[in-house]
Design brief:
iron; 4Fe-4S; metal ion binding; Beta-Lactamase; five-stranded antiparallel β-sheet; iron-sulfur; transmembrane helix; alpha+beta; 2 domains
Length: 445
């Protein structure tokens, strides 16, 4: 076997995709759309929580600043100056403000951590190490933070609160006002915000998907119809080509082949009637005519291959090896029964074997050739393996002869690969070459 190829007809058209392909693509489209919808929903919920938290903190900071400036500061300055009754007035005003439940407690701090005033009894005068929020407020910044264990909470267990520290200025001293807000207010605000954002965002996506799915379904059906039409057109072309091939083969068989066979018989009958010195010429003419008949018969097989279904493939490959036998090359064939194989796959196997055997006959300089046809597996599916081996000179260093105008092996490899198979070229142990082609039993599996 050699890389110097002989030409061979290309394989027939590949079958159309299976009918379920468009369904799988549509299902994949819907699955991706559903995944995007879920991802956007989760992102919307998370974003609404962040927005609600930020809004609640900003609103709490504003409330604390207004309480410090309008409610506490005017009365606290007089109370700290010793004006009688001002502490009671401050406590009364503060508790009236707390009666709606939005603010749970209020505290006034010095920068040292001493409590100047607190709505919790017994806290006034207590000194607690200043927190980071308190120190930031001393510096003139309003700070809001969530605290699960407030330092001024006298309850038995932990209580999550929203703390807001804001600067509070009285004559002669810089203080800090702290207001505690119930954290469940943030949850309520987040729920309200989710109720506004999620229906709008998710609803828009749902409507978009409801619009896209019918469009995608329509497009998929249109593609399916086009594929069916293309498949039918290809099938009609194949059938027309088969009819033309059959007609040409019949014309060759009934015309030139019969005529040349008649000429061969006539020359054989005239041999004894010509002078003896002319008889070798007649013998040469008879041989030439019979060789022409054999060439035409091989051409008929090329134009219209034999039946390749069932055991016909092995028989056709054995017939394709007849030129090797005529050239004195021993052909050993091992063909196992095959399962039902797609017609286009058997056609590719036949043409592959024919191409490989032609290379052996023309270039291998071999004395023996081995043909193996058996079932195997390819990508975990049933497949058929064709191997052509010889004891000739082997493959040259480069098997790519396209630059020289020879496309046989390149077409052979492309044909097998197009049908989902693989081709390997290698050296045979003991000398020679091996070509192996493995194809799935059904194209597209």
């Amino acid at each position: 076997m050699s890389a110097e190829p002989s030409s061979s007809p290309t394989s027939g058209p590949a079958p159309a995709r299976r009918r379920t392909a468009w369904g799988r693509e549509l299902a994949a489209f819907c699955a991706v759309a559903l995944f995007v919808l879920l991802a956007v929903s989760a992102g919307t919920v998370w974003l609404s929580e962040r927005i609600a938290r930020d809004n609640a903190l900003e609103e709490a900071e504003g409330i604390a600043e207004r309480l410090a400036e309008l409610l506490v500061a005017p009365v606290l300055a007089d109370a700290m100056a010793g004006v009688p009754g001002r502490w009671e007035e401050l406590d009364r005003d503060v508790r009236n403000r707390m009666s709606d439940g939005s603010v749970t407690r209020m505290v006034v701090w010095r920068a040292t951590g001493e409590i100047v005033y607190s709505t919790e009894p017994g806290q006034q005068g207590r000194v607690i190490p200043p927190s980071d929020g308190l120190l930031a407020a001393v510096g003139g910044e309003t700070v809001a933070e969530v605290d699960e264990q407030p330092e001024t909470t006298p309850g038995d267990g932990p209580q999550t609160l929203l703390e807001v520290y804001t600067p509070l200025t009285v004559p002669g001293e810089q203080l800090v006002f702290e207001a505690y807000f119930a954290y469940d207010g943030i949850d309520r605000q987040a729920a309200r915000l989710r109720g506004q954002i999620i229906p709008m965002a998710i609803g828009a996506l749902v409507v978009l998907q409801l619009v896209q799915v019918p469009i995608a379904t329509s497009l998929a059906r249109r593609v399916r119809r086009q594929e069916a039409e293309r498949t039918a057109l290809v099938q009609r072309n194949v059938e027309a080509s088969d009819r033309e091939r059959r007609a040409i083969a019949a014309d060759v068989h009934d015309g030139p082949v019969q005529d040349l066979a008649g000429v061969s018989y006539a020359l054989s009958a005239l041999r004894n009637s010509v002078p003896e010195e002319r008889q070798p010429t007649v013998d040469k003419l008879v041989g030439a005519v019979r060789h022409a008949v054999q060439s035409l018969r091989r051409l008929m097989v090329d134009i219209y291959p034999p039946d390749l279904s069932g055991p016909g493939l092995a028989v056709a490959i054995a017939d394709a090896a007849e030129p090797l036998r005529d050239a004195g090359i021993e052909v050993l064939m091992d063909a196992a029964p095959l399962q039902e194989t797609a017609p286009d796959v058997t056609a590719v196997l036949y043409r592959t074997a024919k191409e490989a055997l032609a290379n052996v006959a023309h270039h291998a300089q071999a004395k023996r050739t081995w043909i193996t046809l058996e079932e195997t597996e390819l990508r975990r599916g049933p497949a058929v393996r064709l191997e052509i081996a010889d004891d000739g000179v082997g493959f040259p260093a480069s098997t790519d002869k396209r630059a020289e105008g020879h496309l046989g092996l390149a077409l052979l490899r492309d044909r097998v690969v197009d049908h989902g198979g693989v081709v390997t070229l290698g050296d045979r142990p003991g000398g020679g070459a091996v070509l192996t082609a493995v194809l799935p039993l059904h194209h597209g599996q």
